[in-house]
């Protein structure tokens, strides 16, 4: 019987490019209302995995199911009703306003027999409200700060009204304050019942904001589970070839990774 549980189920997933496998035998289940953070060194397959989940990169084998439906058995429009991706460096049309950008999120819901509707307008309004960008609606996207722009891009993704949201390094190039704003918003999105999978380079931030940590190396899942059960000195060494101390955050016990300096003259052991 097909599993129709809300959320994301990935089974035996392999993906890559001709002659170069990148993602190998990935198994992942993320229930509705939870956040999974994918971490690992550069080139380990994180972004390829996310693109495969988003139906932008066809897998060599395996399945990606959302509420029981294999997204690769759906047409592109129906798949866009199930999963939305915010890439690492999104591009917008020149001089687009925030409201115009967020409306793009409703594109998969348009068609010859279905034009702009009250439902679309409501989805845009809710996305602007949820991301705190309603007052920016008439502003040009390219005139906003980096943190404001990222919240506007998130609003566009939320307006797509998909049960699964994929975010590729949503806090890259943001300062600490704006990164906290974005990651707090990610938690709010999950609290509203959506499934969120995000790629994160900051292991401490991933451990603080995710329900499940997925650690990848060489295209495989090296470790997976609750952050406080998964993050330790051994994992950090295996992933990044650095020694570290793992502390417990005073507020909630979330693991805090403190890398140790390399000895003078020591060279990293990574390829």
Automatic annotation (TrEMBL):
InterPro entries: AAA+_ATPase, ABC_transporter-like_ATP-bd, P-loop_NTPase, Siderophore_ABC-ATPase
GO BP field: iron ion transport
Membrane-protein topology: Peripheral membrane protein
Domain ABC transporter as annotated: residue spans: 8-243
One Gene Ontology cellular component annotation held by this UniProt entry: plasma membrane
Keywords carried by this UniProt record: ATP-binding, Cell membrane, Ion transport, Iron, Iron transport, Membrane, Nucleotide-binding, Transport
A Pfam family that the UniProt record links to this protein: ABC_tran
Name the UniProt record assigns to this protein: ABC transporter ATP-binding protein
Organism in which the protein naturally occurs: Streptomyces albus
């Amino acid at each position: 019987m097909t599993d129709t549980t809300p959320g994301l189920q990935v089974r035996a997933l392999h993906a890559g490019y001709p002659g170069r496998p990148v993602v190998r035998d990935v198994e992942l289940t993320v229930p509705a209302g939870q956040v999974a953070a994918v971490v690992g060194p550069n080139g380990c397959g994180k972004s390829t995995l996310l693109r495969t989940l988003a139906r932008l990169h066809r897998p060599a084998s395996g399945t990606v199911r959302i509420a029981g439906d294999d997204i690769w058995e759906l047409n592109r429009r129906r798949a866009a009703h199930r999963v939305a991706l915010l890439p690492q460096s999104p591009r917008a049309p020149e001089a687009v306003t925030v409201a115009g950008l967020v409306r793009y999120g409703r594109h998969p819901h348009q068609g010859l027999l279905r034009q702009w509707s009250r439902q679309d307008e409501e989805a845009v309004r809710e996305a602007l409200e949820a991301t705190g960008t309603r007052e920016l609606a008439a502003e040009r996207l390219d005139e906003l700060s980096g943190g404001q722009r990222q919240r506007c891009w998130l609003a566009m993704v939320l307006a797509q009204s998909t049960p699964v949201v994929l975010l590729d390094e949503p806090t890259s190039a943001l300062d600490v304050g704006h990164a906290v704003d974005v990651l707090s918003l990610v938690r709010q999105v999950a609290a509203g019942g959506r499934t969120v999978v995000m790629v994160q380079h900051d292991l401490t931030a991933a451990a603080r904001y995710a329900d499940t940590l997925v650690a990848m190396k060489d295209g495989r899942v090296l470790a997976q589970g609750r952050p406080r059960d998964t993050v330790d000195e051994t994992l950090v060494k295996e992933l990044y070839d650095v020694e570290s101390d793992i502390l417990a955050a005073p507020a909630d016990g979330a693991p805090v990774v403190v890398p140790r300096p390399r000895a003078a003259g020591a060279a990293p052991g990574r390829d």
